[in-house]
Design brief:
CATH class: Alpha Beta
CATH superfamily: P-loop containing nucleotide triphosphate hydrolases
Order of helices and strands: EEEHEEHEEHHEHEHEEEH
Strand order of the largest sheet: 6-9-10-3-11-12
Largest sheet: 6 strands, mixed
Number of strands: 12
Structural class: alpha/beta
Mean pLDDT: 87
Shape: globular
Low-confidence stretches: none
Number of helices: 7
Radius of gyration: 18 Å
C-alpha cells in the first residue's frame, strides 16, 4: 500500500484568523477517510487549503502528494495532478456547456500526464459511460454547467466530473448536504464504484447517514483546528449517539 497524502503540522489562516492549528493526517492509496466535526472546526478550510484556495494562508507545516510538495503547486496544477474537490455548493457557469467544460478539463489533465487529447468520438463515448454510472440524463450535455440544476443534480454532476477525471485524491465536502435519500444513494454508489486500489477519498460530513453508504476505513474528528480523535467506522456511530461533547 503506497502513501498518497501526508499532512504534517498544518496551520492555516484566513483574514488573519487561524483556523487550522496543527493538522496531522496520513492517507494511503485505496483508503477512504471521513472527517467529522462541529461547525467552525476547520473541515471546509482543510479542503480549501488542499486544493489551493487563494484566500487561505498556510503559516506552518507541509503537505506531500506522492512525495511532492503540494503547497508549492498552483491550484490548477494540483487539479491536473489529480486532486479533485466536490463542492458543498457547486457553482453555476452560464454559457459553458457541460460537454465543452468536461472535454477541456479532461484534455488538460491528459496533457499534464503526457497523453494525447481524446477525439470527439472517444470523448462522447466516455461521457456516455460515466453518465450511466450516475443515472444522469442525456439532456444535461448541452446545458450550461449547473445552470438551472436542482440541488441533487448539482451533486450528481460533481461526482460525474470526478468519474470523468479519475483523480487520485477526491475530497467530498459535505456532498450529502441537501440530498434526499434517493439522490444520496445514487451519489454514494457512484463514489463507491469509482474507488480503486490506486486512489483515495476524503469524505467531509456532519452526518453518519452518508457513511452508511460510503463506508470509511478511518473516521477522524476535527475540532478547533486539530484532529482530536481517530477510529474506524464505529466512531461515526458513537458521534451520532453522544455528539462531539461526549468525546
Amino acid at each position: 500500500m503506497k502513501n498518497l497524502l501526508t499532512i504534517r503540522d498544518l496551520h492555516a489562516s484566513i483574514g488573519g484568523k487561524e483556523i487550522l492549528k496543527g493538522v496531522d493526517l496520513v492517507i494511503n492509496e485505496g483508503e477512504v477517510h471521513a472527517i467529522m466535526g462541529p461547525n467552525g472546526a476547520g473541515k471546509s478550510t482543510l479542503s480549501a487549503v488542499l486544493t489551493g484556495h487563494p484566500a487561505y494562508e498556510v503559516t506552518q507545516g507541509e503537505v506531500l502528494l506522492r512525495g511532492e510538495n503540494l503547497l508549492a503547486m498552483p491550484a490548477e496544477v494540483r487539479a491536473r495532478a489529480g486532486v479533485f474537490l466536490s463542492f458543498q455548493y457547486p457553482v453555476e457557469i452560464p454559457g459553458v456547456s457541460m460537454t465543452n467544460f468536461m472535454r477541456t478539463a479532461l484534455n488538460e489533465k491528459r496533457a499534464y500526464e503526457g497523453k494525447d487529447p481524446l477525439s470527439a468520438k472517444e470523448f462522447l463515448k466516455l461521457m456516455k459511460e460515466k453518465k450511466q454510472l450516475l443515472e444522469l440524463p442525456d439532456k444535461l450535455n448541452n446545458r450550461s454547467v449547473n445552470e438551472g440544476f436542482s440541488g441533487g443534480e448539482k451533486k450528481k454532476n460533481e461526482i460525474f466530473q470526478m468519474a470523468m477525471l479519475e483523480p487520485c485524491l477526491s475530497i467530498l465536502d459535505e456532498t450529502d448536504s441537501g440530498l434526499d435519500i434517493d439522490a444520496l444513494r445514487i451519489v454514494a454508489e457512484g463514489v463507491n464504484r469509482l474507488k480503486t486500489p490506486q486512489n483515495a477519498s476524503i469524505v467531509i460530513t456532519h452526518y453518519q447517514r452518508l457513511l452508511d453508504y460510503i463506508v470509511p476505513d478511518f473516521v477522524h474528528v476535527l475540532a478547533d483546528g486539530k484532529i482530536v480523535k481517530t477510529g474506524d467506522k464505529t466512531l461515526a456511530l458513537e458521534l451520532e449517539e453522544k455528539g462531539y461533547e461526549g468525546l
